[in-house]
Amino acid sequence: MTTTRLPRREPQSAATQGRPPVPEVDFAHPEAWGPPGEVAADMETLADRVRRLMTFQRGGDLILPLGGHLFDLVVTASGPEACGVVAMLDEIQRCEQQDHPDACGPVIEDPERGWLVWLVPPGTSECWAPHRYGACLGRPHQLALPPLAQTEPPGVFWRRRMRGDRLVPPGPLRELLDRFRPGPVPHETLLGTVLSSIS
Question: What span, in angstroms and rounded, lies between the C-alpha atoms of 157 and 152?
């Protein structure tokens, strides 16, 4: 059996490649990096979000701002009519995703208030017309998500867990709310107060 050796390519310097040489890093002037102990505002925000996410993965609550690149939410009454909407969205999103039987996007149930909270794409609140059976909120509110493992009472729980590949589609949700009529819808002012008070 013969072995074929690949030809060796000699490394080229920056000068032979037509690029200017990279200047050496000067560590002699650390004041150029900013005052000692001061963290850039964007890094502080990032670090805070990483800490929150780690807490969430360990079974704690995660408080997230609505809007941005995450999600808005629609709040409806819970009950049998709302469960019918969840079941129909399971069917719709199962056809789209072809996987798990509980295929609906993420839905949180709050048994104490009698609410379902549907996580919908960010920006939905800007185009959600007033609706008799669902109130939609985005910025500047925030939402405390229950721990991922909390899938039944007591307390707030995931009726449909959060997955990285889907949210609840607002168009079909509106149509199904009109069809099943879960009520009464929580008042938007009350919703804003509850969600804004979470910190």
Answer: 5
CA 82/CA 135 separation, integer angstroms = 14
Alpha carbon 101 to its chain centroid, in Å, reads 22
> How wide is the angle at C-alpha 86 spanned by C-alphas 156 and 116, nearest 5°?
30
Angle, in degrees to the nearest 10, between helices 170-180 and 80-97: 150
Within 10 angstroms of residue 1's Cβ, the number of other Cβ atoms is 2
Q: What are phi and psi of 171, to 5 degrees?
A: -60, -60
> Do residues 161 and 148 lie in contact, with contact meaning Cβ atoms separated by under 8 Å?
yes
32/47 Cα distance (integer angstroms): 22
Helical segments of 58-169, H only:
80-97, 124-127
Backbone phi, psi, residue 87, to 5°:
-60, -40
- Model pTM? 0.66
Helix (H) or strand (E) run with residue 192 in it: helix 188-196
Q: What are the pLDDT digits (tens) for 84-138?
A: 999 999 998 887 656 566 789 999 999 998 999 999 999 999 999 999 899 999 9
d(CA 170, CA 128): 8
pLDDT tens, position by position, 127-149:
999 998 999 999 888 888 988 88
